[in-house]
């Protein structure tokens, strides 16, 4: 039985909205206006809200594939015969995802709406990264005092580099990340100040997240 014209039209609207949301979020970040997204998708705001009742619903749907790619990247790193090489490649890959998409950069470093629906992939990535850290330390590549929160700090710092250089010198982040990877190497390590706890890093992310009101369309 062929699909009804109404159902087919609704699905076309959904596809257009998601494609437009991905592009606009990538350009402007997660604070982009939902009215702008609807307008560029060629639909009314009411149509957008019928398909995605909240900003969080739209963000969750728009970034589902990219968050899966983020989690898949750690599987690729774990499959590397050289754990230190896999670790370095993973850090570069994640920072590359961050550099390529302003919205995804927000999703990685802010407590953004929509993050809840992506929790399973985020948890998969985190669990794999913890295992990758352990392996890289065992082979003597990664400094012994590296903790998962250090990646969060790197992403937050890289977000600042990207914000300052995105227009004038868009590849600057690559040099910054290369510097940081060298700092993570065991053969260059010196004692560090105490690492922040996961709870304190979460509190820091809350502080840099836009107020809830600014996430409205």
TrEMBL record:
Residues 33-52 bind DNA. GO terms for molecular function: DNA-binding transcription factor activity; transcription cis-regulatory region binding. This is TetR family transcriptional regulator. Residues 11-70 form the HTH tetR-type domain. InterPro entries: Homeodomain-like_sf, HTH-type_TetR-like_transc_reg, HTH_TetR, Tet_transcr_reg_TetR-rel_C_sf. Gene3D superfamilies: Tetracycline Repressor, domain 2. It comes from Mycolicibacterium duvalii. It holds the Pfam family TetR_N. PROSITE patterns: HTH_TETR_2. The keyword Transcription regulation applies. Keywords: DNA-binding, Transcription, Transcription regulation. The lineage of its organism: Bacteria, Bacillati, Actinomycetota, Actinomycetes, Mycobacteriales.
């Amino acid at each position: 039985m062929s699909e009804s014209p109404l159902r087919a039209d609704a699905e076309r609207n959904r596809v257009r909205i998601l494609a437009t949301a991905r592009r606009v979020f990538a350009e402007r970040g997660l604070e982009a206006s939902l009215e702008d997204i609807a307008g560029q998708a060629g639909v009314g705001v009411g149509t957008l809200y019928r398909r995605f009742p909240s900003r969080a619903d739209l963000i969750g749907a728009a970034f589902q594939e990219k968050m899966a790619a983020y989690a898949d990247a750690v599987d690729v790193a774990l499959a590397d015969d050289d754990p230190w090489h896999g670790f370095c490649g993973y850090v570069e890959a994640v920072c590359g995802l961050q550099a390529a998409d302003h919205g995804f950069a927000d999703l990685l470093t802010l407590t953004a709406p929509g993050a809840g629906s992506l929790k399973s992939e985020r948890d998969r990535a985190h669990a794999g990264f913890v295992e990758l850290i352990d392996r890289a330390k065992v082979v003597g590549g990664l400094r012994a005092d590296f903790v998962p929160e250090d990646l969060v700090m790197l992403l937050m710092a890289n977000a600042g580099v990207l914000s300052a250089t995105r227009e004038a010198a868009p590849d600057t982040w690559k040099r910054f990340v290369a510097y940081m990877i060298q700092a993570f190497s065991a053969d260059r390590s010196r004692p560090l100040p105490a690492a922040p706890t996961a709870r304190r890093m979460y509190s820091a992310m809350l502080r840099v997240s836009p107020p809830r009101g600014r996430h409205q369309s």
